[in-house]
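Render this sequence as a predicted structure.
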Amino acid sequence: MTDRGTGEGPFGPKASEDEVPSLGGREARRLGGGLSLRSVLPNAITAAALCSGLTGIRFAIIGDWERCLFAIILAGMLDGIDGRIARLLKAQSRFGAELDSLADSLSFGMAPALVLFLWSLQDLPRFGWFASLAFAICCALRLARFNAQIDVDDQPHKSAGFLTGVPAPLGAGLAFLPMYLWIASGEPIFRDPILVAIWVALMAFLMISNLATLSWTSIRPQRSIRLGAIAGAGLVFAALLTEPWWTLAVLSVLYLLLMPYAVFSYAKVRRRRSSEAAVPSEI
């Protein structure tokens, strides 16, 4: 999730989920003063992400599953750059932040829930629909929690460089793991509605959980491996072009495998902070 916002100003402070809020707030504009071009651009990208996510539903209705997934993945890519462009152009606004949250709820909550229901869960009466509802609701709850805490100074996960739970775009990407495997392998087991329902419910829980998860902005590889990291990123991009579904499946599994590492790392940070806070009292 990449909610955008301002520093201090008439629209209130706002920041992306994986960044520390900036305090240089003269970027807000009066409602009656119109929008400059630099203010329109990031919001237009957000609108494009929304349209892309909802277009995925159209492709799902006609059974074009690959184009459906590509549309929602494109929405995730656009969602990843709109906030950064807004900060680069100094065009953050409360309007953009709220638009981004609404777009995320539709593109990464409602759209995946409907797509997964049309693809598999409709074959499981009652429980399949409840699983889809759970995913959409948990995505909305996650975004609401983020908006409610955006002005809160005491956020232990964020101050330590972690996120709380799985971000909405990543949650949608992880929920599609059975689809990636089904398209890549053609095995009907991955379309089994019971398996898919359990998986979707689990991903819904991870989005609203209080687990510490990795933030990409806090990952800083050592100098000795930076060239290797660049080469690895190029190879991943090439793999996405040649074998997109297997590559997405592998990336999803790797992210899930890194979650225990994030929890363990945050626990170490908490213990270090507790020991540092206890030192003055002992003196």
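Summary. Residues 1-16, 19-33 have pLDDT under 50 and may be disordered. The beta strands are 162-164, 212-214.
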